[in-house]
Specification:
Keywords: Membrane, Transmembrane, Transmembrane helix. The chain is mostly helical and about 60 residues long. The mean pLDDT is about 60. The chain has one domain (about 1-55). The chain has helices at about 1-25, 35-55.
């Protein structure tokens, strides 16, 4: 059971790298008339995804 869980999460790690490339290159927003709004949304989504991926450093 533990091996299956570890295997699943290792696959997610590879998927997250490919997902980042996909998000950066191929996302088409329905609000394409407002490109700046769409770009801000992409940046916010990617920033949230990256912050979840990296452990946060807290100051003591």
């Amino acid at each position: 059971m533990v091996e299956a869980i570890l295997h699943f999460y290792s696959n997610l790690r590879c998927l997250s790298h490919n997902l980042m490339k996909f998000l950066q290159k191929r996302i088409i927003f329905p609000d394409f008339c407002f490109p700046f709004m769409g770009m801000a949304y992409i940046h916010a989504v990617l920033q949230e995804f990256r912050s979840r991926k990296k452990p946060r450093k807290e100051k003591l």
